[in-house]
Design goal:
Blueprint lengths: L6 H14 L5 H7 L8 E9 L5 E8 L12 E7 L2 E7 L9 E6 L5 H9 L5 E4 L15 E7 L3 H14 L4 E8 L8 H10 L3 E7 L8 E2 L4 H7 L7 E5 L2 H13 L6 E2 L18 E4 L4 E4 L5 H7 L17 E11 L5 E2 L4 E4 L3 E9 L2
Parallel strand pairs: 7-8, 7-11, 8-9, 9-10, 11-12, 13-18
Antiparallel strand pairs: 1-2, 1-6, 2-5, 3-4, 3-6, 13-14, 15-16, 15-17, 15-18
Bound molecules: FE2/S2 (inorganic) cluster.
FE2/S2 (inorganic) cluster binds next to loops.
Length: 362
């Protein structure tokens, strides 16, 4: 898996690390080969395939600092686009202990997903974070497991199915997956082959925009639940997908008093610190031409107070969907307290607080 350096090279690298502080040896090793970095994690793409016209599936060989993930977790993947580092969260979809594989669906408005879908090649190198997230299966495994996913939400759930099959899970597993039509189903052949091999696994394909080619049709209903897994009330259910699917399933489980048996990726807000009293300077949103006094609140709120509607998701620094390029000035990361003053860097608006004058490309 990870690149192993000969002992002599490792000791030279440690010596260099000491001599090259504060930048550390990684910055220099990266110029030779990004996979040689010691502290940060990099991944080199070793295989690429495109299952549908708007997705890309790629396997990654991680550098030596990588530690394995738990099925269902996500990883922050960083790419550099036009000189700006951009980070997004993706869930590996291989089994625990197996290949590190990602599938990314290009969002027509998503800069990073489109970049990955269009440009990923064998040999591409990305930055990776440690795996993160609590959306994982318990140990010991429940006897009855219902997995529900929609669209590209298949990835963490697929990692769970692959892990359970690899472990030889003895109980019952139903995987209910929603896609628009039969031609949008990711991993169809592999899922059907897994179900054929594993007696306890049943894969149920639901198509929301087609009346043909699936086991179920239309959007989620309680009848779908009963048809896919009649025992769902006794199961532990794991859910990942677009918001309307998540909302419908949550409502149904709440109505039946089963919310405790439904598991989704729940993000917990970290403690954020703001000091509105000490705020000074002006905030300029360059593309829209809006400007305001710095109120000391996070830039997402300041943008909204100025009448803008920036894209956002979690509002707590996890999903990276609120990222924008800061073209000038300094900001404080409200989670870490770190102050950053680089020009043309990508920041998360929801957790970035201006320190004096700041300009954002929004
Ligand atoms: S990181 Fe999710 S909205 Fe900012």
């Amino acid at each position: 898996m990870a690149t192993l350096l000969p002992r002599r090279v490792r000791s030279l690298a440690s010596l260099a690390e000491a001599l090259l502080t504060p930048h550390g040896v990684d910055r220099y090793l990266e110029l030779v080969d990004p996979m040689l970095v010691r502290r940060e994690i990099r991944g080199r793409v070793t295989a690429v395939r495109r299952q549908t016209p708007d997705t890309v599936t790629f396997s990654v060989r991680p550098s030596r600092a990588w530690r394995d993930f738990t099925a269902g977790q996500y990883v922050r993947l960083t790419v550099e686009i036009d000189g700006v580092r951009r980070t997004r969260c993706y869930s590996p979809c291989g089994p625990q202990g197996g290949d590190l594989e990602f599938t990314v669906k290009a969002d027509p408005h998503g800069l990073v997903s489109r970049y990955l879908q269009e440009t990923t090649r064998v040999g591409s190198v990305f930055g990776l974070s440690e795996p993160d997230g609590e959306f994982t299966l318990p140990t010991p495994r429940p006897e009855k497991i219902l997995l529900v996913s929609g669209g590209s939400g298949v990835t963490p759930v697929l990692a769970m199915v692959r892990t359970l099959v690899a472990e030889g899970h003895q109980g019952e597993i139903v995987f209910l997956h929603y896609s628009n039509t039969a031609s949008d189903v990711l991993y169809r052949e592999e899922l059907d082959a897994l179900a054929a091999q594993h007696p306890g696994l049943r894969v149920v394909h639901a198509h929301t925009h087609s009346r043909r080619g699936g086991d179920l049709h239309g959007f989620f209903t309680k009848e779908h639940l009963a048809a896919a897994a009649p025992w769902y009330r006794d199961a532990e259910t794991y859910l990942c997908g677009p918001k309307p699917l998540m909302d419908s399933v949550r409502e149904q489980f709440a109505a039946e008093g089963l919310s405790e048996r439904l598991h989704t990726e729940e993000f917990t807000a970290p403690p954020l610190t703001f000091d509105a009293e000490a705020a000074e300077g002006r905030v300029r949103f360059a593309r829209s031409g809006r400007e305001c006094d710095n109120s000391g609140k996070p830039l997402l709120e300041q943008a909204e107070d100025a009448g803008l509607t920036p894209e956002h998701g979690c509002r707590m620094g996890i999903c990276f969907s609120c990222t924008q390029v800061k073209t000038a000035g300094r900001v404080r990361n409200a989670r870490t307290g770190e102050i950053s003053g680089e020009e043309n860097e990508e920041i998360q608006l929801c957790i970035s607080v201006p320190v004096g004058d700041v300009e954002i490309h929004a």
